[in-house]
Amino acid sequence: MTQIPMVSHIWRGTYADMLCRLHSQYGPVVRVSPHELSFNDPRAWKDIHGHQKAGKPNITKHPDWFVPAINDVHTIISANDADHARMRRIFSHAFSDKALRLQEPLFAKYAELLVAKLKDLAQQPTHKVDLVSMYNYTTFDIMSDLTFGEPLHLLSNAAYIPWVQNIFQSIRSGSKIGIIRYWPGLMGLAKKLTGNTFQRNRVIHFDYSARRVDRRLARGSQEPDIWNLVLQAPEGRGLSVEEMYANTTVFMIAGTETTATLLSGVTWYLLRHPDVLTKLVAEIRGGFVSDAEISMEKLQRLRYFRVCLEEGLRMYPPVPIGLPCLVPASGAEICGRWVPGGVSFSLFSLLQSDCSVVCMCMECCADKGFAITDNSILPTTRHVSIPHKLCSTNILHPRALARRGLAFRK
Predict the structure, then answer these.
(1) Residue ranges for the chain with pLDDT beneath 70
(2) Was domain 81-271 assigned CATH 1.10.760.10?
(3) Residue 407: phi, psi to the nearest 5?
């Protein structure tokens, strides 16, 4: 047993394809390297991402993959339990429904600008529109405005700035550098193969984020953005400036490209299934007399709209391969199997798009969303439906940040 096949697929960007084939051939648990497992079982969501029984340590993210920021300060993703709890308490207010409702004009502004841009492009019938880029322009502008109090003007200019291009490059090069943990002695060779791109991109991303945070703090603001709410934390329990820098680098990746990827997948599936698109359009247009009536609260009442978003997340997850976790030294039981301590594993997110496991809203004859049980949406089903609570790390994981509201609004 060797890591070479797995590492080879990660390097080439085909790891998700490899996991699909292995799980199809060997079942719900696959050993992908000497000390790593991949789970493809809906029961694993609770075992992996839920709270453990009293007295047993929680399963943690793998420390080799979740490292501190470039300033050697941990983020909410990589922090120890005590620091994570402190950061979570702070950010939970900034991302609460109440706080996000105050930001609704900001979301509406960029939604209207996106629609206006698309309408302009539609007047040029021979012009091809890159919707993936349009979605990314929008999500990066929104998150920049929320985080720094100023947009990046990507959507208005319909173009990326070097910083955002650097983020995309960092994601690609980071996956390659990450595999060197298997053979640390090859780090020198990896840097030559990548031109040390990853470390250089990390520095660029951190410096740009830190400068924007400094500008925001120096400028001050009465707007209900992230930092105004963060700065209200009691003395001694807030964030240091270095922690602000570090966490900002996370927000500008986790809160941007992932949402744009989901929207791209939803759009692709809707265009493939015009009957679903027609029903969705009818529900939205029937729910509002004019654009002025549209609000986040009212949009959340549109059941078929929510179904399509949830189905898009299941069918086209932005992070399909799962995030590496580490079994505590005492071991853990996952899906009825005892896994010894020190074993690395992940939950393969694409399991949710396997028609043998769960029904498909857009692929099967009946258009049911697995997150909502409603006979008016789906009278009959041919497949087992996984409850939504078993398909969301945001809800189950004890380290989950309350970010579903932000993602839905975007």
Answers:
(1) 52, 54, 190-191, 193-196, 224, 235-236, 350-410
(2) no
(3) -60, -40
Distance, CA of 217 to CA of 79 (rounded, Å) = 24
CB 323 within 8 A of CB 399: no
Cα separation of 387 and 319, whole Å? 20
Cα 200 to Cα 295: distance, rounded to the nearest angstrom: 42
Q: Cα–chain-centroid distance for residue 6?
A: 23
How do 60-61 and 36-39 pair as beta strands? unpaired
Q: Name every residue whose Cβ is closer than 8 Å to that of residue 283 and which is 6 or more positions away in sequence.
A: 302, 303, 304, 305
Q: Quote the tokens at residue 62.
A: 């793998």
User: Is pTM, for the whole model, over 0.85?
Assistant: no
Would you say 265 and 312 are in contact if contact means Cβ atoms under 8 Å apart? yes
φ/ψ of 191, rounded to 5, equals -65, -35
Residue 184 corresponds to which tokens in the numbers above?
A: 């640390």
Reading the block at residue 48, the tokens are: 């992996």
pLDDT the model gives residue 379: 37
CB contact at 8 A, 248 and 210: yes
Handedness of CA 358, 363, 364, 367 (dihedral sign): positive
